[in-house]
């Protein structure tokens, strides 16, 4: 698939959905307090606009690469299965390696790995439904 064959609106929606999911996932409503405690109380030294702007760019990059991996019109079940593979089998597994060496907790890995698994499943859902 060439980049120009990609459904850019679906990719943009996937990136926005990732950003929205992260806002909820890491909020006090879900895992925000637990995540902050497991990280030893994260301090914000940079401007929030920069943090959110860079985070969105990474979400957009992930959505573009995932869409490229799936192809121009993936079947829904194919796209969702690949979302699980990308999120759990690649991103969370790589976090697991890093977290083991950094001696971070299983709880933190479950929060962060769970987020990225959900992120890529949502990417698959959007890209599998919107051709």
SSE map:
Elements: H1 8-25, H2 32-38, H3 48-70, H4 76-101, H5 106-129
Question: Can you walk me through this structure?
Answer:
It is built from 5 helices and no strands. The chain is mainly alpha-helical. It has a domain at 73-131. The longest helix has 26 residues, at 76-101. The protein is globular and about 45 Å long. It starts with 7 loop residues before the first helix and ends with a helix. 26% of the residues are buried. The mean pLDDT is 93.
Give a brief rundown of this model:
The chain is an all-alpha fold and 131 residues long. It is built from five helices and no strands. The mean pLDDT is 93.
Mean pLDDT: 93
Largest β sheet strand count, sense and barrel closure? none
Structural class: mainly alpha
- Terminal CA distance reads 14 Å
Tally of individual helices: 5
Morphology call: globular
* Beta-strand content estimate: under 5%
User: Total strand count, please?
Assistant: 0
The helix content, as a percent range, equals over 70%
What Rg is obtained from the alpha carbons, in whole angstroms? 15 Å
- Low-confidence segments, given as residue ranges, are none
H-E string: HHHHH
Transmembrane segments: 6-31, 51-71, 83-101, 108-130
Protein name: DUF1761 family protein
Keywords: Membrane, Transmembrane, Transmembrane helix
InterPro entries: DUF1761 (IPR013879)
């Amino acid at each position: 698939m060439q980049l120009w064959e990609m459904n850019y609106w679906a990719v943009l929606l996937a990136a926005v959905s990732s950003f929205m999911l992260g806002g909820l996932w890491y909020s006090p409503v879900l895992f925000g307090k637990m995540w902050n405690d497991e990280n030893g109380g994260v301090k914000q030294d940079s401007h929030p606009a920069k943090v959110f702007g860079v985070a969105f760019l990474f979400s957009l990059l992930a959505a573009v690469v995932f869409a490229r991996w799936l192809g121009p019109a993936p079947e829904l079940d194919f796209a969702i299965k690949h979302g699980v593979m990308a999120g759990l089998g690649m991103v969370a597994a790589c976090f697991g390696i890093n977290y083991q060496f950094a001696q971070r907790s299983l709880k933190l890995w479950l929060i962060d790995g769970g987020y990225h698994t959900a992120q890529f499943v949502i990417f698959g859902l959007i890209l599998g439904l919107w051709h």
